[in-house]
Amino acid sequence: MGKPPNLYAFPSADELAPSLRTFVLDAQNAAIERHNVFRVGVSGGSLPQVLAKALLVESNGDGKVQFDKWHIFFADERAVPLDHQDSNYRLVKKEILDKIPKGMGTPTVHPIDVKYLDDVQEMADQYEKTLVGAFAARDSVKLPLFDLLLLGCGPDGHTCSLFPGSPLLREVDAWVLPISDSPKPPPKRITLSLPVAYHGIRIGFVATGAGKKDIMKQIFDTEEGAELPCGLVNTKGEDRVSWFVDYPAIEGVAFPARRGSL
């Protein structure tokens, strides 16, 4: 058995934000020291809103966000125009990019190429080429190592657009995968593969609200839950994985949580 993931719990999403900021800035500073750039993969859902609370308020803990060093990639994306309400890019732009105060710098953002909306396989291939360009030649690195992946957890235990029972969970070589029949709309998407997700140097999950307590109990307290996509990231990522949750999300969870600040 490897080391278990870290589970940090806070009374509310607002009280979670300063510790999430500390976690992100630790990852940022280590990455900039290592290679002068911070490569981050982000998901959609409620994550961008919580992330905005953590990063855009300077009083939320010590340290400086150096957005000019950030390269933001998408852990998954829907095959829709960038201004579509289902677009993760649009969500990140609305919650974070459009609100960055002057002086915090401007991140480099890597959205999907909308030329390929009708061909998700080609869209996945093109996004993989984007990663190859950022992380080195395909034949020199087996997998891209994100400095930080910030992920969400669906009520069914999915993360990125990797859903329970999907054959995509068995993929070991591709970096980016196409989906044409997502069980959750919209059906056409691309997603990072499971090995890319669990090889992140640091991996952070954000899960808030009482609606998450049943799946959190399953992921952390049952053998079946360990086979769900979030559970697989936990198992493979071990203590490189940190969860930031509020108390309602872990009501009844037996797995030990650290309550309070990071």
From TrEMBL:
Hydrolysis of 6-phosphogluconolactone to 6-phosphogluconate. This is 6-phosphogluconolactonase. GO terms for biological process: carbohydrate metabolic process; pentose-phosphate shunt. One of its GO terms (molecular function) is transferase activity. Residues 12-243 form the Glucosamine/galactosamine-6-phosphate isomerase domain. Keywords: Hydrolase, Transferase. It catalyses: 6-phospho-D-glucono-1,5-lactone + H2O = 6-phospho-D-gluconate + H(+). Its EC number is 3.1.1.31. NCBIfam families: pgl. PANTHER family: 6-PHOSPHOGLUCONOLACTONASE. It comes from the Eukaryota. InterPro entries: 6-phosphogluconolactonase_DevB, 6PGL, Glc/Gal-6P_isomerase, NagB/RpiA_transferase-like. SUPFAM superfamilies: NagB/RpiA/CoA transferase-like (SSF100950). The keyword Acetylation does not apply. It comes from Pleomassaria siparia CBS 279.74. CDD domains: 6PGL. Pathway: Carbohydrate degradation; pentose phosphate pathway; D-ribulose 5-phosphate from D-glucose 6-phosphate (oxidative stage): step 2/3. Belongs to the glucosamine/galactosamine-6-phosphate isomerase family. 6-phosphogluconolactonase subfamily.
